[in-house]
Design goal:
Blueprint: H1 2-26, H2 41-60, H3 66-75, E1 81-84, E2 90-93, E3 97-98, E4 110-111, H4 123-132
Antiparallel strand pairs: 1-2, 3-4
Helix pairs in contact: 1-2
Length: 136
């Protein structure tokens, strides 16, 4: 029950943030190169919601599914890449190089440099390290 409650709380915050961000993005007026009346008000609230979502994910991470955490982080602009080294170790990196795919997925090359302390024995351990390292 706790898992569902925590997921619902985070999803509700995420939906609220998405709605505010959509209103903000839709308010852009290219003729003046500005967001009009929303310039000062919305970005701060959008950022505060993002911080609250990350704080809740970090606080409740033991009771949240890994895929839920990763998906919610991507909605905030994080770029978690789950990596496996063929020796039983996992890492999650937010840094790397890749080709840019616009639209449909494409065949691409990804390049990551993973420091040895980022390699963990489980996906969850790698995720915790990634969260504690603020996605870097």
């Amino acid at each position: 029950m706790e898992r569902n409650t925590n997921e619902i709380r985070i999803k509700n915050l995420s939906k609220k943030r998405h709605k505010l961000n959509s209103i903000y993005q839709d308010s852009y007026d290219p003729s003046i190169g500005d967001f009009g009346e929303y310039t000062a008000e919305y970005p701060e609230e959008i950022d505060q919601l993002a911080e609250e979502i990350v704080d809740r994910i970090k606080s409740w991470r033991q009771n949240l599914p890994i895929e839920f955490i990763l998906e919610e982080l991507t909605k905030l602009g994080w770029a978690p890449c789950l990596l496996y080294d063929d020796e039983g170790h996992w890492a999650i990196s937010g840094e790397g190089f890749q080709e840019v795919a616009i639209g449909d997925p494409i065949d691409m090359t990804l390049t990551h440099f993973i420091e040895k302390d980022k390699w963990k024995d489980t996906i969850r351990e790698a995720l915790y390290y990634y969260l504690d390292d603020d996605g870097e």
